[in-house]
Amino acid sequence: MNRRDLPCSAKLVLKIIEAKGKATFKELLQESLLPERTLREAIRLLIKGGFIKRGICLNDTRTRIYECIKVEREGNIGP
Length: 79
Hints:
With about 80 residues, this protein is of the alpha+beta class. The chain is built from 3 helices and 5 strands. About 45% of the residues lie in helices and about 20% in strands. Strands 1-3-2 form a 3-stranded antiparallel beta sheet. Helix 1 (about 10-20) crosses helix 3. The longest helix has 13 residues, at about 10-20. It is globular, with a radius of gyration of 12 Å.
């Protein structure tokens, strides 16, 4: 999946994660101002597309942390 194929909501979430490095669902919800359901779908698409990965917060194992795993350069995905 290419970044251009993503819906606007997923692109916004990806930009926020790229800028912050890592972000929790709550942080993404506050910064993106997206509805919860839209944010969950955007995260699902980004994980499925291989743009981000989900990790566990060591301070609170109920909290998930999202971070980028791919960088797009000159229209191509990957290094």
